[in-house]
């Protein structure tokens, strides 16, 4: 027989396989119709996590690996029965439907034994996890899953019983009463079927919000009291719902879309003590409006498919409660058209008549952005115009990582990629088509440094590069991670780093036990700097659109400086450190690393903001600026910048010469340069060792230290509990962590373990603030009447680190081609074409001004592309290699 077989991402094959024969208790069904479900569209991009098997791992309930026959919404005719089938209930020739839910049914499984099979941890479905499927000519199914159709229901409508059961179960979960008012968010098949169910159960007023006009028209035809277009500039769904309900709000809100915007609308539109029912399957992690839940005493519940509710649904259908169900069907296609006129037509909204245009013809005329340099705005423009999808972007970036990370030049920029990234991308592509983009990061792939927590269930680790934390389970996303998710960003993977953010000991930058030794993309085997080494390398050569790094002292600015990037080290307290593996509560901060000031400003605007889990953020201004509003080409006009020359004694003479030449450019842009403008406390600042006291004590014994971080982990398979355990783990696993000859040191760990919170510690904190801020940066700005300080990026981090103040670095130049290539020990400290940057430094929370200054300089110089990475380090894969393939 013919069957559509699922092999994996974008690999569905029409094959001839053996006809099945019914075993004892089984019914053989000749398939009539099968509906295409949202999960089928998701699986086109990637197998469905949890319910799909893989090519190597069978699903535990079906014991089947890929490939599997697709289809779980189907109807057909009984053509044969096995021994023991109750033919009085299921006679030969009967028109039937199948409840495709499959569970373990073990007596030790609490959900299965308590009548909650849909909540079985091993749940899957016929047509997804195995056991045949509706996209074949025949299927054999256990009789207890088979139900006869009422005589008044044609077979094509029978294929709708499965999604109708989803809507029925959701309505039951809502405890809907006759006379209740209902708002449905999302008018896809489930939303439209939910409309039919709640009307049948007696809802007095039903509103439906949906951007697609044909779906709104369908809703009005079948009983909706009102429909709303959420994309309309004049639409106010919440106000309209309240007007229709006498100011109360809806009794019940069904979220059938599963995006942040609809969830927010649900909380605003529901009445006090009302019910919100989440029907949609979320791929991204939403932000929950707990305040509204509390102040309105709202009940938020969820629903998952169904459990033996087919008899109730079929009885309601037989009673004529859902006349006109055939209107839900948008087209009828054959086997051979499944991909082109089914999946692709639904995903890409191609010709509604089924005459698909050639994707190759479309893409041939498109000029795709070069991923080496593509800006976030360029990528967003291509996504909006439909030239490519976020799935295409993820595939392209994955291919680029594959080319250079562990092959070719072996840059070791990325520790691991996100196994959920393609699924996230597919969900965000679908959301874009239905509701439009959430904002500038919607569908944009971002790398995260491996000390920034991501949900373990997503498939990535958070380890600070150490095997000691491999497999550990974080309690939640880091706050900055959650903000990226909410903005629609795709978490592409974890970037390599100097292990423990370069706080283990004297070890070359860019080395971690898990990630190995990362190296520069500009100097073969060159020092990438750190500790955000992989974030720098990966962003510099287009392994992602941008990345997040962290800085205690130099860990964003220095790798940005040496990887030809824009990096923003924010004021301590502008971005939350909650969920980030800590070093120093007084100095740690999280910031963007990008190829342009505009991209860095875009990311910073998303991740900045207050967080109750990090009390330092409560000191920031109440309103976080939109830093993209600072992108002004005349941003240096009328500005006074000071040059603290005494810091330059440690700077390469070529860098100083290039920096000096840049001052004339900056003057030509309207700025006044005060040179020199030295710190009044420079000598004292240079001699101070207070920073060492503060950071080493913070790491072990502050209010937010590494011991506390580990204690909050839900699981730590290695058994480490504190810093002492980490030291012991490294000794016990020296072959992975303390690797000779270059990576054996953990002296900083040991020094930190020997610290205590004493008066010397508190004195050092006060001294750092005094030297770095009060008598350092702030005094210099005040004495010389300056807006900011200007210096080579190589020497900028120190004073800003102990002050907790911001810096932005921008590409300035490259060492000459005749620069001596230093020996590799294991990396080269310098070499021809090594990049360097120029830094703008300011007082607390002056990022908006610094972005403006940096943007004006960048636009006048465009230094970044004056030198590319060495050829072997530049990935070849582009979007043109992915789109339409």
From TrEMBL:
Keywords: Metal-binding, Oxidoreductase, Zinc. It comes from the Eukaryota. Coiled coil: none annotated. InterPro entries: ADH-like_C (IPR013149), ADH-like_N (IPR013154), ADH_Zn_CS (IPR002328), Amidase_dom (IPR023631), AS_sf (IPR036928), ER (IPR020843), GroES-like_sf (IPR011032), NAD(P)-bd_dom_sf (IPR036291). Residues 8-325 form the Enoyl reductase (ER) domain. Its cofactor is Zn(2+). Pfam families: ADH_N, ADH_zinc_N, Amidase. GO terms for molecular function: oxidoreductase activity; zinc ion binding. Belongs to the zinc-containing alcohol dehydrogenase family. PANTHER family: AMIDASE (PTHR42678), OS04G0183300 PROTEIN (PTHR42678:SF34). This is Enoyl reductase (ER) domain-containing protein. It comes from Trametes cubensis. The lineage of its organism: Eukaryota, Fungi, Dikarya, Basidiomycota, Agaricomycotina.
């Amino acid at each position: 027989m013919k069957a559509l077989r699922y092999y994996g991402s974008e690999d569905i094959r029409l094959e001839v396989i053996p006809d099945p024969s019914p075993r004892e208790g089984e019914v053989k069904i000749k398939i009539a119709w099968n509906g295409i479900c949202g999960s089928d569209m998701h699986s086109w991009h990637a197998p469905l996590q949890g319910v799909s098997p893989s090519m190597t791992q069978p699903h535990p309930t079906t014991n089947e690996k890929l490939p599997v026959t697709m289809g779980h919404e189907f109807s057909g005719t009984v053509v044969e029965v096995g021994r023991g089938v109750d033919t009085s209930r299921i006679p030969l020739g009967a028109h039937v439907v199948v409840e495709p839910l499959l569970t373990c049914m073990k007596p030790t499984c609490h959900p299965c034994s308590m009548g909650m099979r849909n909540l079985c941890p091993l749940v899957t479905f016929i047509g997804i996890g195995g056991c045949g499927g509706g996209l074949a000519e025949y299927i054999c199914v256990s009789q207890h899953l088979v139900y006869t159709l009422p005589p008044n229901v044609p077979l094509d409508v029978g294929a709708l019983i499965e999604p109708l059961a989803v809507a029925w179960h959701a309505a039951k979960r809502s405890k809907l009463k006759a006379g209740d008012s209902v708002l449905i968010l999302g008018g896809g098949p489930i939303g439209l079927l939910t409309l039919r169910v709640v009307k049948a159960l007696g809802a007095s007023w039903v509103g439906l919000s949906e951007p697609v006009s044909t779906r709104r028209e369908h809703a009005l035809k079948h009983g909706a009291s009102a429909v709303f277009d959420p994309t309309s500039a004049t639409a106010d769904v919440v106000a309209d719902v309240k007007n229709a309900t006498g100011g109360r709000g809806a009794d019940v809100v069904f979220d059938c879309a599963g995006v942040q915007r609809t969830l927010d609308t649900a909380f605003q539109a529901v009445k006090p003590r009302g019910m919100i029912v989440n029907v949609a399957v979320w791929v991204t992690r939403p932000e929950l409006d707990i305040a509204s839940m509390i102040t309105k005493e709202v009940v938020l519940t969820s629903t998952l498919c169904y459990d033996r509710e087919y008899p109730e649904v079929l009885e309601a259908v037989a009673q004529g409660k859902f006349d006109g169900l055939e209107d839900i069907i948008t087209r009828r296609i054959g086997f051979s058209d499944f991909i082109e006129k089914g999946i692709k037509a639904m995903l890409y909204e191609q010709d509604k008549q089924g005459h698909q245009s050639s994707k190759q013809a479309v893409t041939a005329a498109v000029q795709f952005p070069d991923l080496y340099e593509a800006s976030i705005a360029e990528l967003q423009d291509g996504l909006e115009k439909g030239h490519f999808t976020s799935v295409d972007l993820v595939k392209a970036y994955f291919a680029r990582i594959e080319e250079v990370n562990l092959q070719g030049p072996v840059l070791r920029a990325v520790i691991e990629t996100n196994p959920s990234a393609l699924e996230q991308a597919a969900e965000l592509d679908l959301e874009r088509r239905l509701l439009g983009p959430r904002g500038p990061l919607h569908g944009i792939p971002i790398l995260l440094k491996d000390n920034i927590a991501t949900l373990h269930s997503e498939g990535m680790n958070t380890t600070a590069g150490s095997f000691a934390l491999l497999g550990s389970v974080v309690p939640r996303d880091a706050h900055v991670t959650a903000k990226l998710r909410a903005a629609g960003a795709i978490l592409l993977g974890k970037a390599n780093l100097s292990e423990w953010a370069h706080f283990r000991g004297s070890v070359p930058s860019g080395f971690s036990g898990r990630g190995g030794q990362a190296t520069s993309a500009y100097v073969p085997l060159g020092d990438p700097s750190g500790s955000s080494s992989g974030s720098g390398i990966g962003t510099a050569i287009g392994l992602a659109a941008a990345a997040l790094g962290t800085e205690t002292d130099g860990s964003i600015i220095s790798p940005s400086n040496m990887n030809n990037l824009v990096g923003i080290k924010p004021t301590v307290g502008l971005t939350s450190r909650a969920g980030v593996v800590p070093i120093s509560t007084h100095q740690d901060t999280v910031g963007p690393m990008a190829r342009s000031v505009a991209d860095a400003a875009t990311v910073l605007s998303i991740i900045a903001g207050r967080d109750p889990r990090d009390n330092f953020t409560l000191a920031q201004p109440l309103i976080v600026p939109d830093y993209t509003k600072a992108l002004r080409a005349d941003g240096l006009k009328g500005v006074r910048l000071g040059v603290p020359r005494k810091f330059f004694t440690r700077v390469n003479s070529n860098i100083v010469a290039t920096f000096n030449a840049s001052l004339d450019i900056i003057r030509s842009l309207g700025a006044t340069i005060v040179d020199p403008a030295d710190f009044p406390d420079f000598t004292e600042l240079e001699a101070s060792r207070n920073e060492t006291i503060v950071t080493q004590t913070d790491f072990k014994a502050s209010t937010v230290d590494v011991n506390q971080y580990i204690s909050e982990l839900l699981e730590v398979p290695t058994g480490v509990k504190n810093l002492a355990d980490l030291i012991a783990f490294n000794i016990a696993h020296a072959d992975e962590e303390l690797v000779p000859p270059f990576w054996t040191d953990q002296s900083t760990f040991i020094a930190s373990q020997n610290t205590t919170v004493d008066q010397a510690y508190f004195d050092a904190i006060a001294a750092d603030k005094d030297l770095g801020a009060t008598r350092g940066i702030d005094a210099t700005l005040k004495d010389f009447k300056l807006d900011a300080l200007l210096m080579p990026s190589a020497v900028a981090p120190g004073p800003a680190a102990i002050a907790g103040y911001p810096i932005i670095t921008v590409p300035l130049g490259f060492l000459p081609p005749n620069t001596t290539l230093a020996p590799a020990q294991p990396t080269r400290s310098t070499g021809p074409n090594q990049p360097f940057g120029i830094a703008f430094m300011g007082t607390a929370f002056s990022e908006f001004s610094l972005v403006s200054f940096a943007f004006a300089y960048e636009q006048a110089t465009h230094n970044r592309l004056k030198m590319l990475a060495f050829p072997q380090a530049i990935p070849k894969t582009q979007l043109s290699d992915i789109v339409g393939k």
